[in-house]
Write a structure and sequence with these properties.
Layout lengths: L1 H7 L6 H17 L1 H11 L5 H24 L1 H4 L3 H19 L17 H26 L3 H28 L3 H21 L7 H15 L6 H14 L1
Helix pairs in contact: 2-7, 2-8, 3-7, 3-8, 3-9, 4-7, 4-8, 6-7, 6-9, 9-10
């Protein structure tokens, strides 16, 4: 029985397999930054720390099941460009919804707001699935051995949960981070759309990673309250 399972998963452990696994984990980490911000922004829509934590936990469990299903059916899924089109449309819709939302008193747009945990969990799961349409393709290009890709996806989900938890805190600390996150989501959506239109138009992975990190650099460039902190000393100087 185990032999059949291992044969199906192409289970062959070696030093080369270990190196490939490390590459897959690094790719997951690099390509998860924009995903983590998007999931953090979605979870923050519950506006309650305990509910945010539960939404990420349950949402990523559902996302993990969907990822595994995608990996196991990847050969079949890749035959249908409609899946990538739906993923691109979904991600671009999230971006549109964010930037057209009503600005709050801090003059910034915010992600979707939810009234209950059950509303947030499916959005988190399907957002990760849309991102996975791109990352799973990249992982399969690195290795055809299913057990390696499955192991990389498992570690990736754990990493994503940790990163999303950090980003929830950072979204409160940095003014432009949420906008930066949604801009990177737009990049992923446009990349999927280009794959549908013409695969030759898709920019190389290193360009995507560089662009994402530049945008995130801008997102971390300004802390909340920086302007206020600069204005107050000037007022005190005038009063003297």
């Amino acid at each position: 029985m185990l032999d059949r399972i291992f044969d199906y998963l192409d289970f062959h452990f070696s030093l080369e397999a270990l190196i490939v696994l490390l590459i897959l984990v690094l790719l997951e980490a690099l390509l998860s930054a924009d995903n983590a911000i998007a999931l953090a922004a979605i979870a923050r829509g519950l506006e309650d720390e305990e509910l945010e934590r539960k939404a990420l936990n349950f949402g990523l469990v559902a996302a993990y099941v969907l990822r595994i299903s995608l990996i196991l059916t990847a050969t079949w899924v890749q035959q249908f460009w409609q899946f990538e089109l739906l993923g691109a449309a979904y991600l671009l819709w999230l971006v549109f919804q964010h930037f057209t939302s009503e600005e709050t008193k801090d003059d910034h747009h915010h992600g979707p707001r939810f009234n209950s945990l059950l509303q947030a969990i499916p959005v988190i799961a399907f957002t990760d699935l849309a991102f996975s349409l791109d990352s799973v393709t990249t992982a399969i290009a690195v290795s055809q051995e299913k057990w390696l890709v499955l192991t990389g996806a498992t570690i990736g989900i754990i990493t994503l949960r940790f990163m999303a938890g950090l980003f929830i805190r950072w979204l409160d600390e940095y003014e432009n981070l949420e906008d930066a996150g949604y801009i990177t989501v737009a990049f992923v959506g446009l990349r999927l759309l280009l794959k549908v239109v013409n695969d030759n138009l898709v920019p190389p992975e290193w360009i995507m990673i560089t662009a994402i990190f530049l945008i995130l650099g801008w997102g971390f460039s300004k802390r909340v309250g920086t302007e206020l902190a600069q204005v107050e000393p000037e007022k005190s100087e005038v009063s003297k």
